[in-house]
Design goal:
Layout: H1 2-49, E1 53-61, E2 64-71, H2 79-94, E3 100-103, H3 109-119
Length: 124
């Protein structure tokens, strides 16, 4: 009986360590997201705000960051240049662990709803 109890305690200890390790990875991911958001808020958005635009993080996983431009930057002809020369440069310098920055060009759902209301004549 004592062996069973010892085995159970070892199993419980192992499971606790495994869960803790998994939570550590989630915590690291959250810390990375917070670092990314801080860079967006402090270094990127002030530049884009001078053009009545901004940028938001859409996703971050395994060194790949997906962002979306907002405001006038969202439809700007120079969005790709801004991504290359401003956004990627900031992340290369500040967070080299980000291997790739992708631009999400999807249309915001609020914008789609507004466009639909205009088409139905509700925007007047």
């Amino acid at each position: 009986m004592e062996r069973i109890q010892d085995a159970h305690e070892r199993h419980t200890e192992c499971a606790w360590r495994h869960r803790r390790k998994g939570n550590g990875a989630a915590m690291m991911q959250n810390e990375k997201r917070e670092q990314i958001q801080a860079l967006i808020d402090e270094k990127i958005n002030p530049v884009l705000e001078s053009h009545m635009g901004g940028m938001e993080m859409r996703d971050y996983q395994d060194g790949v960051l997906t962002v979306r431009f907002t405001g006038t930057c969202g439809g700007c002809y120079a969005a790709e240049d801004t991504l290359e020369n401003v956004v990627k440069e900031v992340f290369r310098r500040e967070m080299p662990e980000i291997r790739e920055v992708l631009l999400d060009n999807s249309v915001d759902e609020d914008m789609m709803a507004f466009a639909r209301s205009l088409m139905r004549g509700g925007g007047r």
